[in-house]
Amino acid sequence: MERFTVTWTVFIFLFQGFSALTPVFVQTGEDVVLDVNGADCSEDGAIINWKFNQSDILVRLTCNNGKNPTVHKYEYKERTEIIEETSLKLKNCQKSFSGVYSATRFSRKEDIVAEYNVRVEDPVSPVHLNVDLVFNTSTFCSLTVTCSTDHSIISSSFTCGNKSCKQDDGQQTEVTKQENLLQIYLSDQSVICNHSNHISWTNSTEKVELICTLNNASPEILSHHILIRITVVVLLAAVLSASVFFYVWKKKRQTCLQSG
Ligand SMILES: *[C@@H]1O[C@H](CO)[C@@H](O)[C@H](O)[C@H]1NC(C)=O
Ligand SMILES: *[C@@H]1O[C@H](CO)[C@@H](O)[C@H](O)[C@H]1NC(C)=O
Ligand SMILES: *[C@@H]1O[C@H](CO)[C@@H](O)[C@H](O)[C@H]1NC(C)=O
Ligand SMILES: *[C@@H]1O[C@H](CO)[C@@H](O)[C@H](O)[C@H]1NC(C)=O
Ligand SMILES: CC(=O)N[C@H]1CO[C@H](CO)[C@@H](O)[C@@H]1O
């Protein structure tokens, strides 16, 4: 909450006097406070309207000669609250609240005094880093890594020499269907998967050196794997032939007993 208020305050400070559409991002379930951008409510009888999507009047404030303005709620009453005399608080924001919120001031004519493009987003889902391929020699290590989320997946390759690494195809970025950002990049000798949107981010990070040493498909490890496989096959074959032998022996014994 504080974070958004601060961001917003800084924005207003920078753009005081403009009535551009200010983007505001809110996490689902949180509250957000929108300000009238310094509009004057000291003049008796002046009216400030808070509107949604240019048409629905949410709240009408009738200014009261310096006293607190009179508040009339119209549409979406349960969503709104007036705080600090004229600011609009949107409570427990849901995705359907997304849209344009504007404040207009009416004294002799109606002026738009503040306008916000509010977008309500869920926090991003976790991201997983998977090592797909590692080739490590004494002089270099090359690796391919995949970053995946519930809905999307990207991969990228890296080559590391003596001391430094580079990303073969440059930083990889994908905009997911939910308009989140999925990225793979190198930072400080680590591969980072970063899944982010305007209100949150998650990461999965692994040191390149660790990837190279732990996932190395070197000939030794490869032969080790093959050895395990051969052992398993031999054991299976042994068990199988033993059971066949036992079955045949039992059958034979039964025939002997019957005939004898
Ligand atoms: C408000 O406007 C936004 C953006 O134009 C739109 O996505 C949304 O459906 C509108 N909401 C309502 C209730 O009209
Ligand atoms: C690696 O380092 C050694 C000694 O520091 C140098 O001789 C060699 O050229 C380097 N190799 C690469 C591929 O940079
Ligand atoms: C992930 O991306 C977000 C948004 O671009 C950024 O703020 C954050 O610092 C990044 N995290 C890491 C670990 O790089
Ligand atoms: C390759 O693996 C060895 C250990 O098996 C490790 O010491 C070395 O640092 C790795 N090479 C690179 C370039 O990371
Ligand atoms: C927010 C977040 O997920 N941060 C993590 C980024 O990755 C590092 C290293 O894996 C973690 O220590 C952070 O907690």
From TrEMBL:
The chain crosses the membrane at residues 226-249. Keywords: Glycoprotein, Membrane, Signal, Transmembrane, Transmembrane helix. It is found in: Membrane. Residues 1-20 form the signal peptide. The keyword Signal applies. One of its GO terms (cellular component) is membrane. InterPro entries: CD2/SLAM_rcpt, Ig-like_dom_sf, Ig-like_fold. This is Immunoglobulin subtype domain-containing protein. It comes from Oryzias javanicus.
